[in-house]
Amino acid sequence: MHLTILLFAQLAESIGKRSIEIEVRDGSTVSDLLAALEKKHPPIAALRGRLAVAIEECYATHDTIIRPGQTVALIPPVSGG
Predict the structure, then answer these.
(1) Residue 30, Cβ neighbours under 10 Å: how many?
(2) How would you classify the pairing of strands 71-75 and 2-7?
(3) What are the φ/ψ torsions at residue 6 (nearest 5 degrees)?
């Protein structure tokens, strides 16, 4: 299935894009998606344990199944005052 992945903050800066596209097998979970993305984009691997993942604007867990056509957002940790 084809997915659009939105990137934010330092993750978008380190990859150089605000979104990326990827193909994964039907029935993939968030964990499966992150593993596939890590192979293509090392900055994702560096942040994996600290990334928040949202699917269609709702936070998801690593065992959430992704449906075809859904938009996934990767949100790195942020700090500020």
Answers:
(1) 20
(2) parallel
(3) -90, 140
Q: What is the pTM of this model?
A: 0.89
Amino acid at site 80: G
* C-alpha to C-alpha distance for 8 and 18, rounded to whole angstroms: 7
The residue to which tokens 């700090």 are assigned: 79
From 76, 64, 73, 81, select the one nearest 4 (Cα to Cα): 73
What is the CATH number assigned to the segment(s) 2-75?
3.10.20.30
pLDDT in tens, 38-70: 999 999 999 878 999 999 999 999 999 999 989
Q: How many residues does the chain have?
A: 81
**What is the distance between the alpha carbons of residues 69 and 43, in angstroms, rounded to a whole number?**
24
Letter for the amino acid at 59?
Answer: Y
Distance CA 13, CA 25 (A): 28
